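hey
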């Protein structure tokens, strides 16, 4: 190693671990419709990265670096904790942004529908993973789907501009995009950095 270089451990990367999170995946038809809308918006709305269609999801808990030999116990705990859940319905809601109003860090779309069972599911997930050493976030749970990251446009971003562009690209796909879907499972995702799509399913956990 040359002088001044850092090892992977010094950079905060745990060699041999998997970066995991638990999420609800959007159904294919809604992912496709939302992706088509985003590709049209990306022409005039400049973000550094638009999320790959296959990566759309609602996060339940970010787990972080996880040793592979602990994953079977994690899967078992999550299956046990959610075995009594029944399917519920969600649909996409209006869009929003996190970060400075003129240059947001994240563009997202919210969810509506059966929010009480969604929050119950999120609490069940975090309760099941806590004995395994996974910490839940202290901030209030705010379910959403990340659409794009890091605004870089020369013109300031604004909600009004976003809405104007959305009206301009209105299409029949919007009916599909806003169609409620049934949540009858959740997934454990692993992050594959520098790949597109970036998330790979480790396990699908069904409520049925």
């Amino acid at each position: 190693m040359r002088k001044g270089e850092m090892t992977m451990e010094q950079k905060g990367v745990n060699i041999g671990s998997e970066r995991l999170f638990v999420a609800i995946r959007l159904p294919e038809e809604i992912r496709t419709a939302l992706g088509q809308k985003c590709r049209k918006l990306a022409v005039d709305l400049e973000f550094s990265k638009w999320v790959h269609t296959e990566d759309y999801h609602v996060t339940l808990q970010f787990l972080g670096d996880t040793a592979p030999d602990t994953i079977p116990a994690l899967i078992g705990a999550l299956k046990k904790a959610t075995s009594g859940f029944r399917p519920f319905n969600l649909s996409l809601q209006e869009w929003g942004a996190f970060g400075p109003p003129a240059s947001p860090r994240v563009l997202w779309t919210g969810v509506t529908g059966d929010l009480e069972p969604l929050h119950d599911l999120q609490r069940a997930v975090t309760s099941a993973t806590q004995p395994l050493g996974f910490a839940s976030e202290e901030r209030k749970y705010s379910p959403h789907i990340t659409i794009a990251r890091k605004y870089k446009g020369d013109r300031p971003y604004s909600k009004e501009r976003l809405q104007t562009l959305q009206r301009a690209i209105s299409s029949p796909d919007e009916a599909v995009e806003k169609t409620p879907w049934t949540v009858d499972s959740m997934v454990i995702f692993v992050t594959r950095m520098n790949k597109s799509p970036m998330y790979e399913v480790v396990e699908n956990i069904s409520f049925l």
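The first strand starts at residue 18 and ends at 25. The chain has five helices and nine strands.
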